């Protein structure tokens, strides 16, 4: 039920900054600054909820933090007519699927459950797009599954492009026993694959299609409003994982698993999913999913029309800014705004810093690109401020440009040799790791796509790309500085 707009003054943000803990001070300070948010989550802050009449609810959250008391239903044993069953049914209607499962452990647990299900119910053999998120590789390892890579195209900008049906078909010819094809669409930069043709390819081979649509929870609404057909739920995918928190209005760490068709048994899948979710699911997270469902079902199409209109206002104007390149591609989800100011001498990290100086915080900087993640909560004034900032930065920049890979490290570009994941490992200096088998994911974050996976043989070219990420100030997980190496970077490798 929608809450009425509170008549009370919104809580003093400064109070949060005085909460005492370092995290409380940071979060309170960030909220008090009031920056333009082109990063997750999609709601972009309290303003969105207050404008839609949920302001009073925000102030009541501590009182709404409960457990499975009578009447509260149970996420893993939903009652007929129960409040959580009602929410699941609402999402089933919104996405037009056979079954929808709310998640409080993020899309990561949905991906891991999907892989575990396919490994146990079909076969522990997979084809996996090499640009998948690290959660996919974690899931494969936990399921004890074997995988062979299929490789998305690499665009001229140095960004992972679509996974083509021809490449998927090549994978199935080499691994005809594969139980499932796992793809990411859209990817972090917003590039989509042709899910309909990939589903046809997988089904023709007797496999299911698992789609990590974490960055595309909004696509089903855009399909409805614009008459397109990009949402994996509309294109024949069997298991689709949507991060509603990334672009829609639920809180961080909430997501959905949507099941399509008759190739996946909802009862068996639900039992598998319970193994990967917390046994104490947060009712505050589930409440945010319920609010998002209500907003999406009853007001979503209008909000998406506003969102699409703002993008259609912003993008052509941004493309006219001298020295700024805005990524374009036929399969681009335009809610991801990829900006390259290298013609004005700025790489992605430098452009992100310039934007933050103007109180605009973006989702990711990698290589020469900054990715601004728009969401359902952004308003026209956000895009106006971004446009003015880009005009200022471009005018103050220098002609010439930077060198190097526009997007930093492109996963799978080097097509590294695969071996068994080593069980005995040691830390080795990066400059001595070529030829060694990787024992732990080496992952630029964001976007969270492993540059080198466990079991892959590291080459000098791949290691040089990792060093390039570090030199640009990008965060790389899975490596560490070692005093024994004079503070140099080391990587976890199989023993010789």
From TrEMBL:
According to its UniProt record, which protein family does this protein belong to? Belongs to the Orn/Lys/Arg decarboxylase class-I family.
**Gene3D superfamilies in the record:** Molybdopterin biosynthesis moea protein, domain 2 (3.90.105.10), Type I PLP-dependent aspartate aminotransferase-like (Major domain) (3.40.640.10)
The name this protein goes by in its record: Arginine decarboxylase
Q: Which GO terms describe its molecular function?
A: carboxy-lyase activity
The UniProt entry, under Pfam families, shows:
OKR_DC_1 (PF01276), OKR_DC_1_C (PF03711)
Q: Could you tell me which residue ranges the Orn/Lys/Arg decarboxylase C-terminal domain spans?
A: 422-462
Q: What is the scientific name of the source organism? A: Eubacterium pyruvativorans
**Residue span(s) of domain Orn/Lys/Arg decarboxylases family 1 pyridoxal-P attachment site:** 27-299
Give the protein's cofactors: pyridoxal 5'-phosphate
Q: Which UniProt keywords apply?
A: Decarboxylase, Lyase, Pyridoxal phosphate
Upper classification of the source organism reads:
Bacteria, Bacillati, Bacillota, Clostridia, Eubacteriales
Presence of keyword Lyase: yes
- Superkingdom field: Bacteria
